[in-house]
Adenosine deaminase (Streptomyces jumonjinensis), 356 residues
Amino acid sequence: MHLSDILRAPKAVLHDHLDGGLRPATIIELAGEHGYRDLPTEDPAALAVWFRDAADSGSLERYLETFAHTCAVMQTRAALERVAAECAEDLASDGVVYAEVRYAPEQHLERGLTLDEVVDAVNAGFREGERRTGGRITVRALLTGMRHTDRSLEIAELTVAHRDRGVAGFDIAGGEIGNPPSRHLPAFQHLKQHNCHFTIHAGEAVGAESIHEAVQICGAERIGHGVRITDDITVHDDGTASLGRLASYVRDNGIALEICPTSNLQTGAAKDYATHPIDLLRRLGFRVTLNTDNRLVSGTTMSREFAQMAEAFGYGPEVFEEFTVAAVESAFLPLPERRRLISEVIRPGYAALRQG
Ligand SMILES: O=c1[nH]cnc2c1ncn2[C@@H]1O[C@H](CO)[C@@H](O)[C@H]1O
Ligand SMILES: [Zn+2]
């Protein structure tokens, strides 16, 4: 598949962090405005390389340290609006037609904004970005609770309060080791009580037990990463595979896995593209979606993830159409909107690609 076709293909991303995807030049400008002096360099190209290299350590904790610089410059209404608008523009120019973009409101309070003001600012930025692209993209926010802090219930309440106004669901993120999903059970119970959507980062730095908690104790509808579901899958010498009870449950219930290959290589959740579990999971019938995680920190785009997977596994447009349809089917959007996106945007887009 040619890069131009990959760029043109309609894409949907369910797992993309707002604070992991800033334009390097914007970080530098905002740092100037905020009086933030701790950036490792003031050259945009060098800054992009710095993020990717610093995050490429094989450890999730080290990967997450780089976010101190992006969060530092996302502390005012104007900065949040700008970053969100640019995020929508950048995704749209990469061919993304639907995006769920997540961030942790609690990380943007250093200069006096309230949680509600943070959410309003980011939403205003997304609306502005959608408008600038002429409506080529629809963006929804997911609000993230940080797993090492104690604000998840508050963020779950914030999610319920802002739903139907640009916020589609909730997530927890941050260091997985020592902070299991069950630690945030009250947040998930609140969301369930209010019929609200949520996904959980699980099975990235910790194995299947984290996914078990996320799905069976907390009730996650989707799993962020989830690659370590392979702990519960045995691949035999003849290439066949046996699934344990948890893997079967996740597959048979169509629980979407928000897979982010490049990020996994940086954090050590996977060894290389060629042996990334995405292909095994897809062949076994899991609901696989392909995602960026952090466009700046992982030095990637949706098109780049597609291209890496095309190279590693020979995927063509059929597989990318399958991933995209799976993503939209698992989106936290009302069903008629999901169906409309699939029948009016995704299917025709891939049909046009096949006709050349
Ligand atoms: O792959 C990941 N695993 C766990 N946490 C992450 C990942 N990527 C980003 N964040 C965390 O989510 C916060 C809100 O967006 C970021 O600040 C970062 O700390
Ligand atoms: Zn993530």
Summary: The chain has a mean pLDDT of 97. The CA atoms of residues 100 and 140 lie 5 Å apart. Residues 335-354 form the longest helix (20 residues).
